[in-house]
Write a structure and sequence with these properties.
Oligomer: single chain
Number of helices: 12
Strand content: under 5%
Number of domains: 2
Mean pLDDT: 92
Order of helices and strands: HHHEEHHEHHHHHHHE
Structural class: mainly alpha
Keywords: Hydrolase, Membrane, Protease, Transit peptide, Transmembrane, Transmembrane helix
Membrane topology: Multi-pass membrane protein
Pfam families: Peptidase_M50
Low-confidence stretches: none
Radius of gyration: 23 Å
GO biological process, one term: proteolysis
Strand order of the largest sheet: 1-2
InterPro entries: EGY1-like (IPR044838), Peptidase_M50 (IPR008915)
Distance between the termini: 50 Å
């Protein structure tokens, strides 16, 4: 067996496994149960539910695949050697996963051109975004009757369509997961869907096409964050050039980290009745500061600068929380802040050719940043 066939088998195998894991995960979201009969799972899912799970996995993987092949074919057009997409399956069988960590292509050449980085970076998210729009249009124009939710939660029937006022009152934190909002998602809910059929935010996870489309917007927004070597970083680097990007990217990263951690700790948290409780809060707070320091450790080669940035962000968060304790960010972004700051990087690799983009590319670049604004949700998931 030659190397090319082995490569195709690897990529195809990863895709098939990811199709299976996303189908499993999709069915679990749809039916609110699990395939593995753990204690407390009264009715494990079976083959009929697995087949139904394709309603999630097919549109979701289609969007992901179009995104990755947007990068792939544009790289080929620019004579840059790249691999086929590597799909990353992940299903643990305990719920609350989407069956994958995404996909990526590996660039095998040094890219020496600002324009090439821009072309390859922008092609993926724009291609995937177009398909996401189609999926969302279909999802919201084909919503089932509102009573559909009683097939998933028969216990809600006693409240009728007023279930939203009662069903979530005594749930523990994380007992239900809702889809947040963004400008585009809100548009589809308001202007495409029949308002009487739009489910409660905590129940949208049971609607596979809605879930697939929403996740596509969520991952598109993450990819388009204009920092480092994310797709948005390539786009902004192409638009403004290396010199300005090296100032803008760290500033945006600081703002992102500030928002993510805002409200995680407030001055009022330290007003506890006992010394033991105070030192416990102080210990967790120290771990949080250390976590942020690790995230900011690559913002400068000087460790003291990284520490000063960390302490400044923490001080600003405490100050805002003192003035407005009701204002909070979204702590779920902190993991991505850490991955971005520590591993993916805040800055962009330099290119030998720093040619400005032509007008067509500039227009596309700003459209991509508008797409980011339309897809970004300040609180993507409600717990």
């Amino acid at each position: 067996m030659n190397q090319r066939i082995k490569t195709y088998l690897l990529h195809g195998g990863l895709f098939l496994v990811t199709l299976i894991t996303t189908t499993l995960a999709g069915a679990e979201w749809m039916y609110g149960s699990l395939f593995i009969p753990f204690e407390g799972v009264t009715k494990p899912l079976g083959w009929p539910e697995f087949i139904a799970g394709f309603q999630f996995s097919v549109p979701f993987l289609a969007i992901l695949t179009v995104h990755e092949f947007g990068h792939y074919f544009t790289a080929k057009a620019n004579k840059v050697r790249v691999t086929l997409p590597y799909y990353i399956p992940l299903w643990l069988g305990i719920g609350q996963s989407i069956g994958t960590l995404g996909a990526f292509i590996r660039i095998k050449d040094y890219i020496n051109s600002r324009r090439k980085y821009f072309d390859i970076g922008i092609a993926g998210p724009l291609a995937g975004f177009v398909l996401a729009l189609i999926v969302l249009w279909y999802a919201f124009s084909h919503l089932p009757p509102p009573e559909f939710i009683f097939t998933i939660h028969p216990e809600y029937a006693k409240w009728g369509l007023e279930y939203g006022k009662y069903a979530y009152q005594n749930l523990p934190e994380g007992g239900a997961i809702g889809l947040g909002d963004n400008l585009l998602f809100n548009f589809f809910k308001t202007y495409v869907a029949d308002p009487a059929r739009v489910p409660h935010p905590y129940e949208m996870v049971h609607y596979p096409f809605v879930m697939a489309g929403y996740l596509a917007l969520f991952f598109t927004s993450l990819n388009l964050i204009p920092i480092g070597q994310l797709d948005g970083g390539h786009i902004l680097y192409g638009l403004i050039g290396r010199k300005r990007f090296q100032w803008v990217a760290p500033a945006l990263f600081i703002i992102f980290a500030f928002y993510a951690g805002l409200g995680s700790y407030k001055p009022a948290d330290f007003a506890v009745p006992t010394d033991e409780a105070f030192f416990k809060v102080l210990g967790y707070f120290a771990l949080y500061v250390g976590f942020l320091f690790l995230a900011f450790s690559r913002i400068s080669e000087n460790r003291m600068t990284s520490l000063l940035v960390t302490l400044s962000v923490v001080a600003a968060q405490l100050a805002v929380s003192w003035v407005r304790p009701d204002v909070e960010g979204y702590s779920g972004f902190l993991v991505f802040v850490f991955v971005l700051g520590r591993f993916l990087g805040i800055y962009h690799p330099a290119t030998e050719r720093d040619e400005p983009l032509d007008l067509k590319r500039q227009v596309l670049g700003w459209i991509a940043l508008i797409v980011f604004a339309l897809c970004f949700s300040p609180r993507p998931f409600l717990l």
